[in-house]
Amino acid sequence: MDHLYEPQTEADAAAMIADAAQAGRALAISGGNTRAGFGQKVDGAAFTSKRLRGIVAYNPSEMTLTALAGTPVAEIEAELADNGQMMAFEPADHRMMMGTEGVPTIAGLFATNTSGPRRFVSGAARDSLLGIRFVNGMGETVKSGGRVMKNVTGLDLVKLLAGSYGTLGFLTEVTFKVLPVPRAEATVVVSGLNDAEAAIAMSAALATSCEVSGAAHLPESVRWLFGKNGLPDGPATLLRIEGVEASVNDRVDRLKPFLQRYGAVSQIDQGDSQQIWCEIRDVTPFSEDGSCKPLWRISCAPSAGHQLLAALRLETGVNAFFDWQGGLVWMQMEGDAEAEMIRAYLKRLGGGHATLIRARDHIRAVTPAFEPQEKGVATLSAAVKAKLDPKGIFNPGRMG
Amino acid sequence: MSGAIALKAPDPAILSRREQIIADLADFLPAGTVISSERELKPFETDGFIAYRRMPLAVTLPRTTDEVAAILKYCAKYKVPVVPRGAGTSLSGGAIPQEDAVVIALTRMNRIIEVDYPNRCARVQAGVTNLAISEAVSADGFFYAPDPSSQLACTIGGNIGMNSGGAHCLKYGVTTNNLLGVKMVLFDGTVIELGGKALDASGYDLLGIVCGSEGQLGIVTEATVRLIAKPEGQRPVLFGFETSEGASACVTDVIAAGLIPVAIEFMDKPAIEICEAFAHAGYPLDVEALLIVEVEGSEAEMDAMLKAIIEIARRHGVKTVKECQSATEAALIWKGRKSAFGATGRIADYICMDGTVPLSQLTNVLRGTAEIVARHGLRVANVFHAGDGNMHPLILYNINDPDEARRAEEAGNDILKLCVDAGGCLTGEHGVGIEKRDLMTHQYTKADLDQQMAVRAAFDPDWLLNPSKVFPLEGRA
Q1: Residues A145-166 as b or e (16 or more Cβ within 10 Å = b)
Q2: Interface with B, mutate which of A83, A118, A140, A153 (most B CBs under 10 A)
Q3: How do residues A265-303 score in pLDDT, each as one tens digit?
Q4: Do B203 and A151 touch (CB under 8 A)?
Q5: Smallest Cβ distance to B208: which of A160, A180, A181?
Q6: Inter-chain contact A162–B389, Cβ cutoff 8 Å?
Q7: Which of B 321-360 lie inside 8 A of A, CB atoms?
Q8: How does residue A1 score in pLDDT terms, banded at 50, 70 and 90?
Q9: Of B205, B385, B457, the CB nearest to A159
Q10: How far is CA B279 from each of CA A146, B167, B252, B394, rounded to the nearest angstrom?
C-alpha cells in the first residue's frame, strides 16, 4: 500500500521530501484534495499539507495575512470577515463542480491560481500572493517574496509556484494581500441578448468609468440552472458594481440608462447579487451530478469567447456560460470531450487555452488536461521544472 | 568615480576579438544598426545610476524581433555577453554595460502595433515609452496604469525588465499585474510568445517570472498590456503635517479604515522645498511632511472619500488641507511629485533608495533613515509611495568627492538593511541591478538565492545575459 505523508512542520516536510528524492519516490501533492479528478492521474504516495495549519500573522492595517499551507480557506475567510476584509480574487470553492468532499486549503487556492469574477479588476490569486515558503524537490526549504505590497527583489518565484499545481514545490506557507470588503454591491442585468450582442454590451460597459467589477453572460440554456435570484426571463448579461453605497448608487444610475440601448435593463441588489456571483464563481450550473460530463475552462480574448461557442454549437452538444467579459468560458459537453475540435477553433480565433477540468477516467487518460504548448515554451517549462524538482517526484504528469 | 561595487572582469579573449565581432555584427545587420566609435558609445556607458560607468564593446539598435534574434544567436555562438537596454533610466544600474558586452538597445522598436478596445489591451514594441501608450489611448477614455516617474522617457521593455511601479500602483498594481503577454527572444535566438490577449496563460507562469527578471532571462521585443477605462474624475489633495510621525500615522489609519485611495505620496520638508522650488506646485512650505492623496470616481464618490480621509488627518494634527480647484492645479501637484528626482539633481548628486516596509514600520524606518544619514554626515530628502510602504530616501552627496560618495553608498546600504530587518525588502520597484546586488544575501539565504539562480540558468545556462546584475558575483551556480 502506498504511504501517506502528513507532515506537521516545514522541517518534517523537508526531511520527508529529501528522503523521497533519494529513493526516487513520486509524491502526489495535495491540500484538501478538493480538486481530485482534475488533470492527469498522478501515481504517487499521497503527500498533504493539511496538518500544516494556522494563521501565522495578520495585521489588518497592513492588509496582509500569512498562513500555513494547510489552513482551511474557511478559517481564513472568517478571520478576514471579522475585520471587514477579503481575498479580492474571490477564491472559488470547486467541491460541487468536482463532486469532491474535503476541506479547501489556502495553499491549494494559490497552487491552482483559482480566481473568481473580479479577476479583471483585482487580479488573479497570483496577483495577491506576496510571499511563499516551499520545499523544493531536493528537500531544501526556500522562500521567495515577502510580506510587503511591492517587491522586485530577485526572480519572482512566487508567480512561478502559483498555478503550478504542486509540480514545482511543496508550499508550506503563503503571505497574501487582502482588501476591504466593498460595503455595497448591485448588479445591472441586461436581458434578452444573444451571445454576440452580450459581448458588445459587456465591452461597452467596461469602457465606461463605472468600474464594473464583474461581467458575465448567462445564455438562456444555463440561466435556469442558477438559483432563485430574481433574474428576469431570457438570457441575462450581468454587470456588477461594488463600493461604498453612495458610489454604487451613483454608478448604477449612470450604467442603467447607458445599457438601455442594448436591451431591457433591470437591477438586482445586495443579497441576490452576492448569491449569483457566488454561483458564477463556483460554476454551480455545471455541478457534478454523477454523470461526469466533460467540463472545460476556456481562457481567451474576451471578444473570442462567444465566437468559439457559436462555432462549437454547430458541431456538437455543448452548454456554456461566460465570465470575465467573455474571456472565461465554462463549457459542459453533452457527449465527447472534443479536445481537438475545441483547441483547433480556439487557435483559429486568436489563441488562448482550454483546460479539461472534469471528465471520466477513460477520457482523462487520453486527453491532455492542459493546453499543449509550443515547442520553445514547452522546452523552457521542462527546464524550469528540472531546476526545482530534478528527480521529477512532485505530481509527475499532472501538468502533462 | 567608481565605488565599491564590482562588475565582472571583462574577458580578454572577447576584448581581443572586438574588431571581428563588430565587423560580423555589421555584416548581418542593416547599415546603421551597429555603433562602435567611442563618441557614439559614450551615451550608453551608464544609466540612471550614474556613479558607475563602463564602455560597452558595441551597441546595436535593432528594428525587428528577427534582428534581435540574429544578434543573440551570434552572441550565444561566440559566448559574448549581452546587456539589454531601453531608455537607460534605471536607478539601480540595470542597464550599465560592461567592456566585453554587446548592448542591445530597443529604442528603435517604438511602434504601437495594435490597440484593441473590445479586449482592452494594446500590443506594443518594447521600445515604446510608458507614457506613449497612455497618450495613444487617452482620447478614447483609456490609460495604461503603471506610471513610473520617468514615464516620459522609460520604455515598456525596461518596465517589464524591472517590474516597474509608480504612484498609482496602490490601486492599479505594478507592471506584472498589467501585463498580458510578451514576445521574447531567448539567448539562443529562439523566439517565444508568452500569454496573449487572455487574462491567464496556460502552464507555468513564465510571464510572471520574466517580468522583473532584469533582462536576465531573454529580451522582450513586444508586449501586450492591459488598458483601463479612465475614471470619471480624479482629485489630488495636499495634506501638510507638523511632524513626519503624524503623516505616517495618518497613512496607516487611512488604509486601516478600508479607504484605498489611488495614490498616497509622502514628502518630507527637504523634498517639499526642492520640488516646490522647481515646479511651483503650491506645496505648503511651513510643514514638516506632506501627503498627496489622490481619490477618483464621480464627484459624490470623491467627496465622500475625502471627507473620511480629512477626518482621519485631523486626528493626526493636519495643519493644511488643500484641495485643488482645477485640472491645471492637479497637474502641477503631480508635476512637483514626479519631478522630485530631477529637481533634486539640480541641487546635489543623489542616490535613491527603494526599500519597501510594512506600513506599521513607516515611522520607525523614517526615523532610522534620518539617524543613519546623519551618522554618515550627509543629508536626505524623503519622497515616496506611502500607501504601499515603498520608501525612496534620496541621499544627497557630491559625486566628485570620493569620500562623500563612499559614505553615501554606505548609508544607502545601511538603510536597505534597516528595511529588510523591519520585515521589508531591498527594492520595491527599481530593481536590484548592480546597486543592491551585494545586499541580496541580507534578504535571502543561500538556498533561496541558489534556487533563483538555478531557475535563471534554465533560461541562460552560460550566464551571458546582463551577467553582472542581481546576483552576487561570488557563489554563482
Answers
A1: bbbbbbbbbbbbbbbbbbbbbb
A2: A153
A3: 999 998 999 999 999 999 999 999 999 999 999 999 999
A4: no
A5: A160
A6: no
A7: 356-360
A8: very low
A9: B205
A10: 36, 18, 28, 18
CB pairs under 8 A between A and B: 275
* Residues 456-475, chain B, touching A (beta carbon < 8 A): 456-459, 470-471
Q: Output the CA torsion B195→B197→B200→B201 (10° steps).
A: -30
Of the candidates A84, A123, A143, the beta carbon closest to that of B173 is on: A123
Determine contact: B447 vs chain A, CB below 8 A.
yes
- Helices A195-206 and A305-313: crossing angle in degrees, nearest 10, is 180
Nearest to B197 among A61, A64, A301 (CB): A301
Q: Which of A151, A342, A374 to probe by mutation at the B interface, max B CB count within 10 Å?
A: A151
Cβ contacts of B201 on chain A, cutoff 8 Å: 299, 353
Residues A7-41: tens digit of each pLDDT: 999 999 999 999 999 999 999 999 999 988 888 88
Chain B hits for A300, CB-CB cut-off 8 Å, are: 197-198
Are the Cβ atoms of B359 and A62 closer than 8 angstroms? yes
Q: How far apart are CA B21 and CA B79, in angstroms?
A: 11
Predicted local confidence at residue B3, as pLDDT: 67
Q: Is A291 on the interface with B (CB under 8 A)?
A: no
Interface contact B153, partner A, CB < 8 A: no
The residue behind cell 432563485 is A228
Low-confidence ranges of chain B (pLDDT < 70): 1-3, 477
Residue A82 near chain B (CB below 8 Å): no
CB B423, CB A146: distance < 8 Å: yes
B115 touches chain A (CB under 8 A): no
User: What local confidence, expressed as pLDDT, does residue B477 receive?
Assistant: 61
Distance CA B265, CA B343 (A): 17
Q: What is the pLDDT of residue B381?
A: 96
- pLDDT value, residue B2: 47
Contact B297 A153 (CB under 8 A): no
Over the stretch B427-440, which tens digit does the pLDDT of each residue have? 999 999 999 999 99
Q: Would you tell me which residues 397-416 of chain B have a C-beta closer than 8 angstroms to some C-beta of chain A?
A: none
Q: With contact defined as beta carbons under 8 Å apart, do B180 and B119 qualify?
A: no
Please give, one letter per residue, the 3-state secondary structure of chain B.
CCCCCCCCCCCHHHHHCHHHHHHHHHHHCCCCCEECCHHHHHHHCCCCCCCCCCCCCEEECCCCHHHHHHHHHHHHHCCCCEEEECCCCCCCCCCCCCCCCEEEECCCCCCEEEEECCCCEEEEECCCEHHHHHHHHHCCCEECCCCCCCCCCCEHHHHHHHCCCCCCHHHHCCHHHCEEEEEEECCCCCEEEEECCCCCCCCCCHHHHHCCCCCCCCEEEEEEEECEECCCCEEEEEEEECCHHHHHHHHHHHHHCCCCCCEEEEEEHHHHHHHHHHHCCCCCCCCCEEEEEEEECCHHHHHHHHHHHHHHHHHCCEEEEEECCCHHHHHHHHHHHHCHHHHHHHHCEEEECECECCHHHHHHHHHHHHHHHHHCCCEEEEEEEHHHCECCEEEEECCCCHHHHHHHHHHHHHHHHHHHHCCCECECCCCCCCCCHHHHHHHCCHHHHHHHHHHHHHHCCCCCECCCCCCCCCCCC
Please check the confidence at residue A2 and state whether its pLDDT lies above 70. no
Q: Which residues of chain A have a CB within 8 Å of the CB of B455? A: 155, 157, 160, 384, 387-388
**Interface pTM, i.e. ipTM:** 0.96
Predicted local distance difference test score (pLDDT) of residue B41: 97
How far is it, in rounded angstroms, from Cα A334 to Cα A332? Answer: 7
